[in-house]
Amino acid sequence: MFGCHLGKLFQVTVSGGSYQEALSAVVHGVTPGIAVTEQDIYGDLLLRKPGADELSSPRKEPDLPVIITGLNVADTVPGAGNTNHTNGTPLTIVIPNLDRHDIHIQQYQDTNRTPRPGHASYASFQKYGPSDDAIGAGFFSGRYSATIVAAGCIAKSILQTCGIRIASFVREIAGVRCGDIDYAALMHHSENYRRMRRDYDPFYQEIYVKQRITMGMRFLQKAAVLAEVEAEIDAIRQRAPKMVKEAILDTYGVHPVVLCPDIEAADAMVDACTTIYEEGDTAGGLIELVIQGAPVGLGEPVFEKLDGELARMMGIGAVKGVEIGAGFGVKDMTGYECNDRMRGENGAVVFDSNNAGGITGGLATGQDIIVRLAVKPTPTIDKKQHTIDKYTLQTTELSAITRRDPTITNRIWPVAEAYAAIVLLDQLTAHYGYQSLRAIVDKSNQR
Questions:
Q1: Mean pLDDT within 223-238
Q2: Residue 134 has pLDDT above 90, yes or no
Q3: Vertex 173, ends 138 and 371: CA angle to 5°?
Q4: Is 53 helix (H, G, I), strand (E, B) or coil?
Q5: Predicted confidence band at 56 (pLDDT cuts at 50, 70, 90)?
Q6: Under a CB-based contact definition with an 8 Å cutoff, are residues 161 and 37 in contact?
Q7: pLDDT tens figures, 161-202
Q8: CA 206 – CA 124 distance, rounded (Å)
Q9: Can you spell out the DSSP letters for 400-445?
Q10: pLDDT at residue 102 above 80?
Q11: Which of 222, 249, 325, 256 is closest to 51 using CA atoms?
């Protein structure tokens, strides 16, 4: 594979597969001196993995990350206080696959001759041949997105120190769309939702709160704990506190399943998706992403425009469309309607609208950057479908498959945030370098 690498200055290389030993993310260009913990990375990973709610598949991967390179294992000099800080070398994050069982492997083996419609299994077989990693869909499984989330957690940490914040929410599932959202309030709502998920996640509590794995342990010590966890997955999951909607609303002010500030709309999304699921089918949806604090001018024309780079989120599995600002709606506008007119107020530039989604000419305008992702329905469904035999090319029938996500939409938003963070940090590194050189040249010209 040649397409498993992203970025020029802040770079991410991912590898692994759904039923291989592990997945991994190698991150290059990490700023030295950033405090990183596996607990922080897991705090993001738990948001995209299957949960215990009605919109998740029954797979039970803990997604426990292990950092094996890129951090100082001790203070560089006595009292330096830089243990477990990044040191500028490539950061490697490994996510072992712990919920692997022979019965599931056999199920895939029994059906791998007949590719699932809507999935990559036919095209990947034609590209890679009989050795194509088809167990659990290999690298075409949604599990690979854990690598993006892990790397994006590092990027988000650096961006936050630069005043750039990213938040997202589920705009629509199964045709149910929420109303207008206050983006300033969204940031607070998102933090509350993350806190709720950490408090209710049994692995977060068992592994990190109880300190079964700590940053002071060596890799082999952590591996020993992971071997224990593999045998305890069901027992740990059973310790999860029951999610009572009313209690969660009272304590956190969020919906227990869907990250959407419009609670009534979130309820309707779950109901609509459940109805479709009970019919053996699945649902798609729409994710909306908001980026605040990006400096004016961020972006690198012509072929690396900021909106073009964010549109690379088409690389996220199940995403079939990306739009910025008004997106495809601009086709129905006049120029006067579409233009975001500017005015000066108290020495600052104020825009009348944001149809451009915070980006013009591939450069950030200083407004909120708004991105939406269209997510297709889960291709694995509980309905018989006709397909072909990959080896004979004869038409055949694919049996219904019950182990599936009713919708992938509710698991895509953390991947989108991570992907956007990787793109933004890569662009920001170039931007700061350009502006620093420009300042040196300007100073020289003033002499």
A1: 95
A2: no
A3: 80
A4: coil
A5: low
A6: no
A7: 999 999 999 999 999 999 999 999 999 999 999 999 999 999
A8: 38
A9: P--SS-SBSHHHHHHHHHHHHHHHHHHHHHHHHHHHHHHHHHHHHH
A10: no
A11: 256
Q: What angle do CA 310, 335, 427 make, to 5 degrees?
A: 20
- What is the third-level CATH fold of 5-445? Chorismate synthase, AroC fold (3.60.150)
What's the rounded Cα separation, in Å, for the pair 409 and 171? 10
- The pLDDT-based confidence of 405 (bands split at 50, 70, 90) is confident
Q: Peptide bond before 302: cis, by omega within 30 degrees of 0? A: yes
What is the C-alpha separation between 169 and 413, in angstroms, rounded?
7
> How far is the C-alpha of 37 from the C-alpha of 216, rounded, in Å?
10
- According to DSSP, the residues that pair with 85 across neighbouring strands are 35
Tokens of 426: 């890569």
Cα–Cα distance, 249 to 251 (Å, whole number)? 6
Cα within 13 Å of Cα(344), Cβ side: 2
Burial bucket for residue 267 (CB in 10 Å: 0-12, 13-18, 19+) = middle
149-168: b (≥16 Cβ within 10 Å) or e = bbbbbbbbbbbeeeebebbb
Q: Can you tell me the distance from the alpha carbon of 361 to that of 308, in angstroms, rounded to the nearest whole number?
A: 10
Q: Is the pTM of this model over 0.70?
A: yes
Q: 390 near 120, Cβ under 8 Å?
A: no
Residue 225's pLDDT band (boundaries 50, 70, 90)? very high
pLDDT of 111 above 80: no
Domain ranges across the chain: 5-445
Q: What is the CA radius of gyration of the chain?
A: 23
pLDDT in tens, 376-404: 999 888 889 999 998 999 999 987 766 67
pLDDT of amino acid 447: 80
DSSP state of 259: -
Query: Is 260 exposed, middle or buried (CB count within 10 Å of its CB: 0-12, 13-18, 19+)?
Result: buried
Please state the length of the chain: 447
Burial 227-252 (b: 16+ CB within 10 A, else e): eebeebbeebeeeeeeeeeeebeeeb
